[in-house]
């Protein structure tokens, strides 16, 4: 074989080897599509817990009873001796103090801003409210009136002038009674709003004009 043919043969062999090497290096590696699919994905970060703030239940007073609105469902709160446990549950028993019975058998159960007068003979008595909140619970009438409400708000809700500095709301007659203020008239019961100037200073319920309550 001549020198020229020998050179051509060597060049051809070199080109074949180069093509083989390039083909090998361009082949898919072991981390193909299947491997990409099986790679672990980033875990989502856990969201922080949401703090739920509960709204304190409100005590709404009426002539018949008081009602707990919001919070745990509870039976209406009466103004009799058998209701004291319900009041303690609604307002917090740790903050209640009870005094000795008075001469007529009435026991006062006190919370800061609220006094519950109950009789041992189960005769209906009353509750006196001197603060807008008691143990963190708003206390108001069904009309939205509370200690601190204005005279204008009370009058707009239907309050009427009473004796002295008192306004009266939800006034109704009580058959079989006689008013101590209006001769020959049937007695009435109502929610009494004791005013200090033009501001409600206290609320008493139920109140009346024929007895001592």
Write up what this structure looks like.
The protein is α+β, with helices and mostly antiparallel strands and 213 residues long. Helix content is 20%, strand content 32%. The protein is built from four helices and twelve strands. The strands form two sheets. An eight-stranded antiparallel beta sheet has the order 3-4-5-6-12-11-10-9. It has a four-stranded mixed beta sheet with strand order 2-1-8-7, with no helix packed on it. A hairpin with a 4-residue loop joins β1 and β2. The longest helix is centred in the first third of the chain and has 23 residues. The radius of gyration is 42 Å and the shape is globular. The relative contact order is 0.11.
Number of helices: 4
Low-confidence stretches: 3-34, 47-54
Mean pLDDT score, rounded? Answer: 77
Number of strands: 12
Order of helices and strands: HHEEHEEEEEEHEEEE
Radius of gyration, CA atoms, in whole angstroms: 42 Å
Distance between the termini: 138 Å
The major sheet is characterized as: 8 strands, antiparallel
- Measured as a percent range, the helix fraction is 10-25%
What brief labels describe this structure?
globular; 8-stranded antiparallel sheet; alpha+beta; about 210 residues; disordered N terminus; 4-stranded mixed sheet
Summary, kept brief:
By secondary structure, the chain is of the alpha+beta class. The protein has helices spanning 3-25, 33-37, 84-91, 151-156; strands spanning 58-61, 66-69, 97-98, 106-111, 114-119, 126-129, 133-134, 137-141, 160-161, 166-178, 186-196, 199-208. The strands form two sheets. An eight-stranded antiparallel beta sheet has the order 3-4-5-6-12-11-10-9. A four-stranded mixed beta sheet has the order 2-1-8-7, with no helix packed on it.
